[in-house]
Amino acid sequence: MVDELLVASLGEVPYEDAVAMQQRIRAARQAGTVPDVLLLLEHPPIYTKGRRTAHTDLPMGEEWYRTQGVEVYESDRGGSVTYHGPGQLVGYPIMRVHDVALTGRRISTLTLGEGPDVVLLHGLGSAKTSFFDTAAALRREGYRVHAIDLPGFGSSTGRATAPYSAGWFADTVVDWMDALGIDRAHVVGNSLGGRVALEVGLRAPERVGALVVLCPAVAFVKRGLEHVVRALRPELGMLPHRIARPVVARQLSAMFADADALDPSVKDIAIDEFQHTYSSAGARLAFLRAARNIYLDEPFGDDGFYPRLATLEPDALFVWGTHDPLIPASFGRHVHQWLPSAEQVVLEGCGHVPQIEQPEATTALILGHLRRGDARSPGAAVGLAA
């Protein structure tokens, strides 16, 4: 179950050669003759055309670009045109993903490395791919890292009767840990995954080492549309429909402080992944129920989020972004009021997905908090149950 990761820094490699290399490595990985591989390389100047490329995407015509020393390559990926060139580091992961079977659910899991266990939980509408770079970085620092798809998202399955609430997701994470024999783990989550990570810490504190939550979907204090949202039925989302690609692209870009700084291929992959997942009626139900539950999460009262947060036992680090349009950094004052012991950091010029927009700074924060957690509890081993 624990896989070695081979990181290969190859310098500049022509795009077609890199494609052929990936195909060979993928076949070897499927045969089990090589470990997980991460290729790090650059390409000579090239535009790659996806399946949605329009003739207006290369307005001067392909031959003109070739005369300027820029190749044009037609690929089988989704999206439109992407440019690669010298100075732009590209990572190609070829990794084996395994499924963990639970009652009524199947959890798609990527496991890397050996050492104390770290669980990575993605956000709403996303998948474990949003944490691949983080997983590789933590693995290099001596952790066994598990990036999972929450049930109903990515390649994991859920069920139509599931509530898709923070509590249900948290119970799933604990069940998943039981299935793998993981007694205790550090837990890192983004957005919805951050809310789930907190819920795991509240429900099963003895199973959690340190908590890191990135722009977590904490309870809204002001909910002006509460009555409208309560009246909406997520089940209607199972009726056939789709969200147009330009709409998905706009919503994705809005999650980042500077969407233009992101690698276009990363955006294309994220859009393709969302549209592929959302094409499933079950996935649409999971998405809409989870979104509804986030908005309706009670902030106060006996079972309210913030009074419960005050009882959180695991050491927690909250990371916010100054340009987060969904969960503003101002939510930190509510966290401080109810959980003053929590460490809080605000990243300047960062939106809702810090591990993608500011990966180096975010990984450094995560690693620092996990290391402090390891030092504080040397006798409480994070890892496999006896």
Provide the low-confidence segments as ranges.
Answer: none
Helix content, binned percent: 25-40%
Which sequence of SSEs, written as H and E, runs from N to C?
A: EHEEHEEEEEEHEHEHEHHHHHEHEHHE
Radius of gyration: 21 Å
The name of the CATH topology of the largest domain is Rossmann fold
Q: Kindly report the average pLDDT value.
A: 92
Q: Sum up the overall morphology in one term.
A: globular
Strand content: 15-25%
Q: Output the structural class.
A: alpha/beta
Question: Any descriptors?
Answer:
about 375 residues; 9-stranded mixed beta sheet; globular; BirA Bifunctional Protein, domain 2; alpha/beta; Rossmann fold; 15 strands; 2 domains
Characterise this structure.
The chain has 386 residues and is α/β, with parallel strands linked by helices. It has two domains: 5-94, BirA Bifunctional Protein, domain 2 (2-Layer Sandwich), CATH 3.30.930; 98-384, Rossmann fold (3-Layer(aba) Sandwich). It contains 13 helices and 15 strands. Strands 7, 8, 9, 10, 11, 12, 13, 14 and 15 form a nine-stranded mixed β-sheet that branches. Strand 3 (46-49), helix 2 (62-67) and strand 4 (71-74) form a beta-alpha-beta unit. Helix 4 crosses helix 5 (192-203) and helix 7 (245-254) crosses helix 8. The model has no long low-confidence stretch (mean pLDDT 92).
